[in-house]
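Researcher: Please generate the 3D structure of the following complex. Treat every line as part of one assembly.
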Amino acid sequence: MGAPVLSRRARVAAGPGTRAHRRPSRRRRRDHLVGLLLVAPALVYFLVFLLYPALSALYYSFTDWNLRTDASWVGLANYADLLFDDVTYPHFWKSVRVTLQYTLLAVPLTLVTALAQALLLNTIRRGANLFRLLLFLPVVTAEAAVGAIWRWLYDPQYGLINALLGLAGIPGQNWLNTPELVIPALAFIAAWQCGISMIIYLAGLKGIPGAIREAAVIDGAGPWQRFWRVTFPMLRPTTFYLLVTGVIAALQVFGLVYVIFSGNGRSVTGGPEQSGLTYVLHLYLFAFRYDAMGAACAMSFILLVFIVIVTALQFRFVKQEAS
Amino acid sequence: MRKWPVYVALVLLAAVSVVPFLWMLATSVKHGPDIYTKVPSLLPLDRKTGAWSATLDNYRYVLDVGGLGRAFLNSVWVCAVLVPAKLLVDALAAYAFARIPFPGRDKLFVVMLSGMMVPAITLLVPRIHVTQALGMFDSGWGLIVPNIASVLDIFLLRQFFLSIPGELEEAALIDGAGRMQIFWRIVLPLSKPVLAVVTITSFLFHWNDLVWPLVVTNDPELYTLPLALQQLVASPDGGRAYYIMAGATLAVLPVIAVLLVFQRRILQGIAFTGLKG
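Model: Done. Output below.
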């Protein structure tokens, strides 16, 4: 991508005969001005809504603060209280467990579904576009609508899910009101929305040279062997990318859970027995319901550090696998 | 290899993905009592006689009493202002980063890119604080200004601008054209594919966004569609699925229309951008 620029620079640097060298310095000064002017709005946005918030979040995480009063410095107290004081923050560790369970279930389920869909799509020609479109539909849907739709699908009495299970002779469940079933129910929704991963897997599959597949066929490898010995290893970079981004997203799941447990004060507790109280829902409640902005900032930095560690571990693991 | 098992599997998977929408649509046009049947129906049928019995009353109710009419217009308004304004801010910056030499340009770009690594949730609380300090909290501006640029979009646009042959612009420069003229007359017309991808993904993101409107508005007059839908779910009407599904349909239909029209661009774009604005 950078090639044209490099070659142009190379030409400019090539010597005194080029036009660029004779370009009057007035033009260069004007370029400086125009360049800065064009970048200015984005730069202001970056400073005001990205850099400053990031730095102030770190500062406020060491303070006792709500939006109406000045922040007072409390050092590491927020962090210590979150981690060790289960009177002030009785559900902090519960929210960590809920989020980890959700991540460990939702991410693999999403990737397996996406890969299966992509493999199937990759073997057909006729109708492939239509199927791809239909499978992609859940992704572009607003999480507010997704939450609303699935509350109704999971309805214990009149919901479609229980009706379908009934056809198979499986007794209906009260999905969103049974603590043990909340995480599986949420993970299923995540897999339902696996379209982006499916598209990226499909791009990865298209990138595998046909010659490799043909060679495997000639060597007498069956479809199963071809998948495990050729296709899956060739898709490793794609899987890794989806795994890392999927984990980062799953650790921050919020909007969907917020909608699912809206009403009857349930969003305040995150579902039955806090079984759907994800980390970011917990953070949101402390920031915007209990007015503990400083603690919420500390929570966001604990999450940031955790994400960095998990991502680094994943990179390391993959490196070892490769060597 | 036989193809029919593949098609059977795909039909099943496609059904899982589409049937919830069909059920949403069916529920939204049913008369209230008709949704409470032992065997759920994907068609709006009378629960006693089994005859066709569709209504638009649920839509009338949520648009008017439920406040979704106003919220729909708010969402249209926010997207109509925000998406083009954001595209302009991002494209101007991306063009300067790609083509106009100024001191410290590449360092500045790297610093801005590093901002992408900070999770959105970390920025949420202090962003509200900044929005409040600027006097934009709980106002239309608060829905727009804090989202007025996207580092990811600047990155994507810059990458595309870099791939346009520089000779075109150099020739124009020699003919005495200014940078802005080149940007409008040469660069933008050549960049339609990437402009389309950025516009569509940004529309999808802001049309669907729940979290920012949730934290930046208190006044129901300002609610966007996803937020108003969430509020409806949380209200006593939340148990009345025929209302909720009418609301969900209002949120989903425009997006499905955009997907149908721009499917090729969206699916191509997704392959390298993801969907987050």
